[in-house]
Write a structure and sequence with these properties.
CATH architecture of chain A: Up-down Bundle
CATH topology of one domain in chain B: Hydroxylamine Oxidoreductase, Chain A, domain 2
Number of strands of chain B: 0
Strand order of the largest sheet of chain A: 1-2
Number of strands of chain A: 2
Mean pLDDT of chain A: 87
Oligomer: heterotrimer
Strand content of chain B: under 5%
Largest interface: A-B, 31 and 29 residues
CATH class of one domain in chain B: Mainly Alpha
Radius of gyration of chain B: 30 Å
Number of helices of chain B: 21
Mean pLDDT of chain B: 91
CATH superfamily of chain A: Cytochrome Bc1 Complex, Chain C
CATH topology of chain A: Cytochrome Bc1 Complex, Chain C
Chains: A mainly alpha (347), B mainly alpha (453), C alpha+beta (145)
Shape of chain B: elongated
Largest sheet of chain A: 2 strands, antiparallel
Radius of gyration of chain A: 23 Å
Strand content of chain A: under 5%
Largest sheet of chain B: none
Structural class of chain A: mainly alpha
Number of domains of chain A: 1
Helix content of chain A: over 70%
CATH class of chain A: Mainly Alpha
Distance between the termini of chain A: 78 Å
Low-confidence stretches of chain A: none
CATH architecture of one domain in chain B: Up-down Bundle
CATH superfamily of one domain in chain B: Hydroxylamine Oxidoreductase, Chain A, domain 2
Chain lengths: 347, 453, 145
């Protein structure tokens, strides 16, 4: 066969780069459940940018913190917009991460030697929760302040490491300006570094280890089509990103961010409550005797990280993990929803 | 692998981006206002829930429930039962009341003994002040029970304001039920319902005085959520939210003290008196009020009315203590010596007003002595200003108006910095009263002479 | 066989161009908004006339330093003429001081020198010192900031 011009011509730099990152991607990634991976990534980018923008005005010292957030929200031009996007993106990111976790769990995407993907992903999830807590505290309104007190107290309850952890987080025995600046450091420097490393690792892991095959072990694996990452899949992601942006911009305009009353170390606010993503755990700890509750949470976290290995172990012994996973995720979603709603409605 | 046709997708991205652009354009013109006050989240306890469920079911007291949800009480989990189930020490009037509630412990009316459970300090302060004596003062007056019960015990008239002292004190008089907003109570309007009108138009006088006008024009910016003792905590800090002029509580509830008291009181009488001339006038006025030692009724009035209800300061120390407190308040804004001088001026004008009053009382008392005024059976044969309007002749009505309407305005107007009220509604009227009383007395005497012939 | 004007690359170009145009509008505006957020507006604060003092209060031959709502000023009087100079050096913004012995304004940062009329005579300053308007109402001297 004759050699074509294309094969002989030297490829341009752009093409070389594209070739390098190019990957054939299974067509099932076009379905809605599988968009839940790219969505948190786009949201994270939004959070990163809006967060950096706000550091140009935010002052991490007790009274000034609240004032600067108030200025951002009400005085500075478009401050409400940047802060609103930041807040909405946090909520959407954690929501989409939870849904992503459910999807991954149901499809057992950690199998076929993909455990590392799961571990990194779990790391990303808990880091995101840490982001949520630290960021919420930076506003330094009354709910922030008392939230800081309660959560650092809870950290202090942990066995062995508790006291040290409490002192580390608070920068002293009590919640003070040192606490604020430590949480600020965590939120703007250490945690971003950590999560960027984890996200890069997670994406690399998926890229290098490939996607887990669809279909249960019992059914025959259907051969599915593939499509190129660039430009086909990249455009899909681009399309979804623009839609997400439009959604966020519109929602922020309709429901601009609010601000609670300033922190009052002398009086607990009556409406102190954690953000919704912590409500379920919060409710759990209030209804179950404290030590048992905390122990259960720690156990849950350990099992959560180790699950792919448990899966592997049980699969080898013949358990139908597909059924198990669907049952567990259904139960988890129901329990989480009930606990969350119970805490939020609080009758 | 065929290259998928990406053109539709590219157009889609393009169009959506343009939509994003439009949305962002609108963003540029949007601004947001500070959010409205957030309704507090009520904490409904089990006990409160019982009350609420039934009341909501039966459609009762919807206003009370709405108000309560806005209150700090509801935020802190203080519900219906903490107040409406009387605790030990509640006056019998309440514990003896009947109730329509299924829970027979519940009473519609609440006494401050319940409030004391949490607001111990404020109830104790209140008990030391004039508001606490309002009801007993009313009851101890001689003509109270001559009027229809609806006016007094029924709280439609005099009782409606004097109830503040009923049943150990009614805390909802100023921070009204069921919201119990301290912010409401700090504003002068809270006092206006009772401290207005015929014999004590403090609201009218204050609101047209310079202090009141400053409140009227700037008061909406003042921060009434702050405790009174914190208003001038940084005395030289300039802020639009610090009151620039006094409101009622500034002077009369210094530092939030609920024991309202003044040096001169409602009657502008005091003992002892160093100024001998003045004492003569005062003695006449006291005689006119029937407060004297040489009759049973007089003794009763002293022992059961004036003293227990603290109607006047009866020692020099008591009077000076209240005067000093007032000077301290004025000095929050004014110079101390100026404040002293101004208050002394008013003291002086009280003396002048007392002079007129004493002369008028003398004239009418003379008519009594000479039996020139009709005196029915139960009538004491002397001037009794505490009969108020239960008098038979026009001249006695004039005397009572002179005392209760016009003399009041002379010193109340002066103290509340209202020159017009002090003069035209006070002093000028007293002068007119006196000249009319003189003329009327003269006429009566002439008639009597002619009839005698 | 006719010429078929179904040019794949032209269709691709059109769609790409449209997409790029749209994206530049959409994302461009987004980044413009970010930029606007970061750049605060400059507020021009004109106060008006401020009283410095009586004519006799201002010492002759000396330069009196003043600060009025952030403006750092040197008021120089020679006999009957009063001039108010801004202390901001026209080179790069350091504050100049008055050297009484030499009757000159000296800037310590790059050794800029101005004479007693504010004219730049040595060093990097490109132009004379800025002035503030002085008014006299009777015996009283006002400066306009």
């Amino acid at each position: 066969m004759a050699i074509t011009i294309e094969e002989v011509k030297e490829k341009s730099l752009k093409d070389k780069i594209i070739d390098y990152i190019q990957e054939d991607v299974p067509d099932h990634l076009y379905t809605w459940p599988y968009t839940l991976g790219a969505i948190p990534l786009v949201l994270f980018a939004i959070l990163l940018i809006t967060g950096i923008l706000m550091t140009f005005y935010y002052i991490p010292y007790p009274d000034r913190a609240y004032e600067s957030v108030r200025d951002i929200t009400y005085s500075i031009y478009l401050g409400w917009f940047i802060r609103g996007m930041h807040k909405l993106a946090v909520n959407l990111m954690i929501l989409s991460l939870l849904l992503h976790m459910v999807r991954v769990f149901i499809t057992r995407a950690y199998k076929d030697n993909g455990e590392v993907k799961w571990l990194l992903g779990a790391g990303i999830f808990f880091t995101s929760l840490a982001f949520g807590f630290t960021g919420y505290s930076l506003v330094y309104d009354n709910v922030s302040y008392w939230g800081m007190v309660v959560v650092t107290n809870m950290a202090g309850e942990l066995p062995v490491v508790g006291k040290t952890l409490l002192l580390l987080l608070r920068g002293g025995e009590e919640v003070s300006e040192f606490t604020l600046i430590r949480l600020y450091d965590l939120h703007t420097k250490l945690l971003p570094l950590l999560i960027i490393v984890l996200i890069t690792g997670h994406i690399l892991a998926v890229r290098l280890l490939g996607f887990a095959k669809l279909g249960t072990d019992l059914k025959s694996v259907p051969t599915e089509g593939m499509h190129k990452f660039f430009p086909e899949h990249a455009m899909e992601v681009g399309l979804i990103s623009i839609c997400l942006l439009i959604f966020i911009v519109d929602i922020v305009m309709l429901f601009p961010p609010t601000l609670g009353t300033a922190a009052n170390p002398l009086e607990v606010a009556s409406n102190v409550s954690p953000p919704w993503y912590f409500s379920a755990v919060y409710k759990w700890i209030t209804i179950v005797p404290r030590d048992a509750g905390l122990f259960a949470v720690m156990l849950f976290i350990i099992l959560f990280f180790a699950y792919p290995y448990i899966d592997r172990f049980l699969s080898k012994r013949g358990t139908d993990m597909w059924r198990v996973n669907i049952t567990i995720s259904a139960a988890a979603v129901i329990v989480f929803t009930i606990l969350t709603l119970w805490e939020i409605v609080r009758v | 692998m065929e290259n998928k046709n990406l053109n539709p997708m590219k157009y889609a991205i393009g169009i959506l981006s343009i939509i994003l652009f439009l949305a962002l354009t609108i963003v540029g013109y949007t601004g947001i206002r500070a959010s409205k006050e957030e309704v507090p989240r009520p904490n409904i306890t089990q006990k409160a829930k019982k009350c609420l469920d039934c009341h909501i079911d039966k459609g009762l007291t919807k206003g009370a429930i709405r108000d309560w949800k806005l209150s700090k009480h509801s935020e802190k989990g203080i519900g219906c039962n903490e107040c409406h189930i009387p605790v030990k020490g509640t006056p019998e009037r309440i514990t003896n009341m009947a109730t329509a509630c299924e829970n027979k412990e519940v009473r519609r009316e609440v006494s401050s003994t319940n409030c004391k459970q949490c607001h111990d300090e404020k109830v104790k302060e209140f008990a030391k002040g004039k508001h606490a004596f309002a009801w007993s003062a009313l009851e101890s007056q001689p003509t109270t029970h001559m009027q229809p019960w609806q006016i007094m015990a029924g709280e439609k008239g005099c009782g409606g304001c004097h109830k503040i002292g009923r049943d150990e004190g009614q805390c909802d008089s100023c921070h009204t039920r069921h919201r119990f907003s301290a912010q409401e109570a700090r504003k002068p309007e809270a006092c206006a319902t009772c401290h207005m009108g015929f014999d004590h138009p403090q609201w009218e006088m204050y609101s047209t005085s310079k202090h009141g006008v400053i409140y009227a024009t700037e008061g909406d910016k003042w921060d009434f959520t702050k405790k009174i003792k914190d208003w001038y905590k940084e005395p030289l800090k300039a802020s639009f939210s610090t009151p620039r002029a006094p409101v009622c509580v500034t002077c009369h509830m210094q530092e939030g003290d609920h024991g309202v008291m003044t040096s001169w009181g409602f009657l502008a009488l005091r003992l002892p008196e160093e100024d001998e001339e003045w004492m003569k006038y005062r003695a006449k006025i006291m005689q006119g009020l029937g407060v004297k030692l040489d009759s049973d009724e007089g003794k009763r009035r002293i022992m059961e009315m004036v003293v227990p209800n603290q109607m006047a300061r009866l020692t020099k120390e008591d009077w000076q203590k209240e005067r000093d407190k007032m000077i301290k308040v004025c000095s929050q804004c004014h110079g101390e010596s100026w404040a002293k001088d101004e208050l002394k001026k008013v003291d002086g004008i009280i003396k002048e007003a007392d002079k007129l009053m004493a002369e008028a009382i003398d004239i009418v008392q003379g008519l009594y002595k000479d039996k020139l005024l009709p005196t029915p059976k139960d009538y004491p044969p002397n001037v009794d200003l505490l009969r108020y309007y239960e008098v038979q002749s026009e001249i006695e009505q004039k005397l009572y108006f002179m005392f209760l309407e016009h003399r009041m305005r002379v010193f109340q107007g002066a103290f509340h910095a209202n020159p017009d009220y002090m003069h035209w509604y006070g002093w000028a009227e007293m002068k007119r009263d006196l000249s009319e009383i003189r003329e009327e007395a003269g006429k009566l005497r002439k008639e009597h002479k002619l009839a005698a012939r | 066989m006719g010429v078929i004007h179904d040019n794949l690359s032209r269709r691709k170009f059109l769609s790409s161009a449209f997409m790029t145009l749209g994206l530049s509008f959409g994302l461009g505006t987004l980044f413009i908004r970010f930029g606007q957020f970061l750049t605060p507006e400059k507020k021009e604060k004109r106060i008006g006339e401020v009283l410095i003092g009586n004519f006799t209060d201002i010492p002759d031959g000396a330069a009196t330093p003043l600060e009025i709502s952030g403006n750092k000023i040197l008021v120089v009087r020679s006999k009957d003429r009063i001039t108010a100079f801004s202390r901001i050096c026209t080179d790069l913004g350091c504050l100049v001081s008055w050297d009484a012995a030499r009757e000159q304004f000296i800037c310590p940062c790059h050794q800029g020198v101005y004479d007693k009329n504010g004219k730049n005579i040595a060093g990097p300053p490109p132009r004379p010192l800025d002035r503030f308007e002085i008014l006299a109402k009777g015996e009283n001297v006002y400066i306009r900031v």
